[in-house]
Specification:
By secondary structure, this protein is α+β, with helices and mostly antiparallel strands. The chain contains 14 helices and 13 strands. The chain has two domains: 239 residues, no CATH class; 127 residues, no CATH class. 40% of the residues lie in helices and 17% in strands. Strands 1, 2, 3, 6, 7, 10, 11, 12 and 13 form a nine-stranded mixed β-sheet that branches. Helix 10 packs antiparallel against helix 14.
Length: 417
């Protein structure tokens, strides 16, 4: 069971990349010192955005997190299958509710068309569901009328038992072919890279859940964080000349930190997720096709994780800073090991010769060497934006990031045929 571990050091200029509920940069205590923090959810979203922005994963193999599945299906029914807008909405509602996914009960207008919670679904299923709904639209319309009649009867009936019976009867009338097709589309994750990597949880349908093949740690600063405040003012461009002062003022919190970032991919779990839950009417992936998909997924994640930068407050701070150091470890077995404890004592610059990143790299590699027994005789390789010494106890040094990606992929998946 091979695992790929990525350890990054990334120093950011003044920034507020990931905010808490007060608008302040997220932080935490680690090793008895206050540290800056970037949540794992924030990092994973940034990775998914790089998948799209850098075209590392094509649209058909990406997931979408949304409450607007009903509207999207209705749009396809209207635009591609020529259903009237209102009829398309009712058909889409019937298709989604019929498989047990509820709608918003609060708000009005479009809010009532949203699902109860965000669904992480393959982008391609919108067209699949719309095609099924179009093919069986007459049966769905009949079921919708049947359901409305029972709901009307429920309102007039005071006994709870009767309500339960009528609800069960309405569910039983749902077209079997539609249910099977829609459930298969919503359940199946085959070839959907980000869902295979990051998993999916649907409370109402636990059988559709996907266990993540990738774990992403909370990023923490290697240094002790110092929070700063930016006092800003804004002036009305059209104010009279004789008017003094600003028309708006406030403060924004920020910090500048070197982050330790860590992620691990279970290659066997990734392969299992990408193969998907093959149904009786679905074609299995050939081994060669699955191998190629796993290789593309691993390569896409490594590149995206290294280059992804959260978007918080970037319009005002533009902290687009590339990682200074990347360490890749490929393990055949055993438990993954974070190297965060290398920074129990915060890193710090030392004079004019050792900057914060230099000290962070030194602490990380020294700690990894001390853990060599726990890590095992496993291959490891690094890339850095500076010259580093090289000897037997240290990782193999890659000259370029492309070389780094290639070496890690080869160690984990073998040479490409």
């Amino acid at each position: 069971m091979k695992k790929i571990e990525l350890h990054l050091l990334q120093n950011f200029a003044p920034s507020n990349l990931n905010r808490d509920d007060t608008g302040a940069p997220k932080d935490c205590e680690f090793g008895g010192h206050r540290r800056a923090r970037i949540s794992s959810q924030c990092q994973k979203r940034a990775v998914r955005q790089v998948f799209e922005m850098d075209r590392l994963v094509d649209k058909e193999n990406r997931g979408a997190r949304t409450k607007r599945l009903i509207q999207k299906v209705a749009d396809v029914l209207h635009d591609m299958h020529c259903h009237e807008r209102e009829a398309a909405l009712q058909l889409a509602i019937a298709a989604i509710e019929g498989v047990g996914l509820g709608r918003n009960k609060k708000g009005d207008g479009e809010d009532l068309l949203k699902t109860e919670y965000l669904l992480f679904v393959p982008g391609r299923i919108v067209n699949e569901i719309a095609a099924v709904v179009h093919e069986h639209h007459a049966d769905l319309q009949a079921w919708a009328r049947h359901k409305q009649e029972h709901e009307k009867a429920d309102k007039q009936e005071a006994e709870g038992k009767h309500k339960k019976d009528t609800k069960k009867a309405a569910q039983g009338a749902y077209p079997k072919e539609v249910r099977e097709a829609v459930e298969t589309s919503l359940r199946n994750t085959q070839r959907t890279v980000d869902i295979a990597l990051f998993g999916r949880m649907i409370a109402d349908k636990p059988e559709w859940n996907v266990d993540a093949a990738c774990q992403v740690a909370q990023a923490i600063s290697t240094n002790r964080v110092q929070m700063d405040f930016d006092f800003f003012t804004a002036v009305d461009d059209l104010r009279p000349r004789e008017t003094a002062g600003s028309d708006m003022m406030g403060t924004v919190q920020f910090n500048s930190s070197c982050f330790y970032r860590y992620a691990v991919i279970d290659v066997d779990s990734l392969r299992k997720n990408l193969k998907g839950d093959i149904g009786p009417n679905e074609a299995d992936l050939a081994d060669a096709e699955l191998d190629a998909l796993v290789r593309r997924a691993v390569g896409a994640f490594m590149q995206a994780f290294v280059t992804a930068i959260p978007t918080g407050k970037q319009n005002g701070m533009a902290a687009h800073n590339f990682p200074s150091y990347v360490l890749g470890i490929v393990r055949e077995d055993g438990q993954p090991l974070s190297l965060a404890n290398a920074f129990l004592r915060p890193a710090r610059p030392r004079g004019d010769d050792v900057d914060l990143v230099d000290d962070s790299i030194e602490k990380l590699e020294s700690y990894a060497v001390r853990l060599r027994g726990a890590l095992g005789e496993t291959p490891w390789i690094s890339w850095a934006d500076r010259d580093l010494e090289s000897h037997d106890m240290h990782p193999t040094r890659a000259r370029t990031l492309s070389e780094f990606y290639g070496c890690v992929t080869k160690l984990a998946l073998g040479a490409e045929a």
